[in-house]
Amino acid sequence: MNARKRAGSRVWLGLVVAAALGATFAPSASAAPLIDPSQKGSLTVVKYEADNADKTAGDGTKQTTLSGTPLKDANFVVSPVATDLAGEAIDLTTPEGWDAAAKLTVANVSGHLGTALPTGTTDDTGTVVFSKLPVGLYYVFEAAPTADAKPLIPGTPFLVTIPMTNPSDTTWMYDIWAYPKNDVLDVQKALSGDPAQMFGDQMTYSISSHVPYDVDGSPIESYVIEDDLDPALAFVSSTDLTLVSKGGTVLETFDPGTDYTLVTAQGTPLPAPTAVTWTLTQPGLDKITKYDPAPGTADPEMRIKTSITVKVTAYGTDGPGPILNSVSLTTKFAASSTPPTTVTSPPVEVDYGRIKLTKVDATATAKTLAGAVFDLYAADPSSSGSTPIAQGLTTGGDGVLTIDGLLYDEYWLVETKAPDHYELEPAPIHLTA
């Protein structure tokens, strides 16, 4: 009688290892039939996006009512746990084997793994199946996604046994279903206000980065925002980082030097981007963690926001045309066994060109005229409040006036001084850069 009670207790402990499936499994197995060591099982992993996935707890059975966005191209690696903490083989057909399995955790299992199975990749339904699995304990972790996948934050590794006790009766289940959920990372960059009108002017970009949330409760271990400024852009300043709720409320303001570091580093050889990097320190990470909800509940969808002001100093690396600028976010959960995940924003494009004017004699166009002086306007000079953005622009000895570094836009030149012995232009000259 005592032996039966002791065996039932050991089985209960062993079944707790599959917590990452969405719940802890703790049914009584004292009345279950014996495990068949020759029976083969399977593990079916169904991956959903954490932001809108159904938070219904899993129990190892197939769920038929879950809702959410399935995630394609997530990669999973399943490894059998070969030995227990004492270095002995784990035999789940015995109470002692379940006792040994119960002492293994994600944190201490790494030195006890056998040869991993081939990596499995989720299909359009977010599903991948590992079949013909012998009875045993298995370690499951999510590897980096395939290159064309959404920028997924790999989920927390977990341990699972085959078989498990069926929660509806006392039989053993050899085909196990797991429903881990991923957060999809994103970072955004946009112009805040008008772009710089010409070289020497400043403009501001807004940066907004997603704060990922692990449904299994693992805190963020690292969080780095990096803006590799085009060589044509010079860093001027940035605002303090803020933590903002889904509804736009500022939850926290991060203190520079305490909650994060800000580093600007000029790349080499020149011309090369200037890397502007914001790295959260542990006090900054702690400010995020205190807003995490309970494991298994909805993603709070918080964001970190800042802005960066730059000066346009030159054309982009390819000369007149676009200056492209993106920002990246790299982050990692503490429990993740994969490298940090990086996502990059779509580039923000601002285009700059030049205006070239040649002043000639109206009756002898081969004759160029030096010394014509112009003011440049970015709005029709006849409109109310219009003022020049550049003055005293003068044609050279060849009669040519070249104005570099102008935002692609409409412009007007007003002649303020004509060449000697010539009349002023009677109307503004309308041009497009």
How would you describe the overall organization of this protein?
This protein has 433 residues and is mainly beta. Helix content is 7%, strand content 39%. Strands 13, 14, 16, 17, 18 and 21 form a 6-stranded antiparallel beta sheet that branches. A hairpin with a 7-residue loop joins strand 23 (327-333) and strand 24 (341-344).
Quick structural overview:
The protein is mainly beta and 433 residues long. The protein contains 3 helices and 30 strands.
What would the keywords be for this entry?
6-stranded antiparallel β-sheet; 433 residues; disordered N terminus; 5-stranded antiparallel β-sheet; mainly beta
How many strands appear in the DSSP assignment?
30
Shape summary: elongated
Distance between the termini: 92 Å
Q: How many DSSP H or I helices? A: 3
Would you identify the regions where 5 or more consecutive residues have pLDDT less than 50? 1-31
Q: Residue share in helices?
A: under 10%
By helix and strand content, what is the structural category?
A: mainly beta
Overall mean confidence score, pLDDT: 85
* CA-atom Rg in angstroms: 32 Å
Record the SSE blueprint:
Blueprint: H1 2-14, E1 41-46, E2 48-49, E3 75-80, H2 95-102, E4 120-121, E5 127-133, E6 136-143, E7 152-153, E8 158-162, E9 164-165, E10 172-173, E11 175-178, E12 181-184, E13 187-191, E14 202-210, E15 220-229, E16 233-238, E17 242-244, E18 250-253, E19 260-266, E20 274-280, H3 282-289, E21 303-312, E22 321-325, E23 327-333, E24 341-344, E25 348-358, E26 373-377, E27 388-394, E28 400-407, E29 410-417, E30 429-432
Parallel strand pairs: 1-11, 2-12
Antiparallel strand pairs: 1-5, 3-4, 3-6, 6-8, 7-12, 9-10, 13-14, 14-21, 15-20, 15-23, 16-21, 17-18, 17-21, 19-20, 22-25, 23-24, 25-28, 26-27, 26-29, 29-30
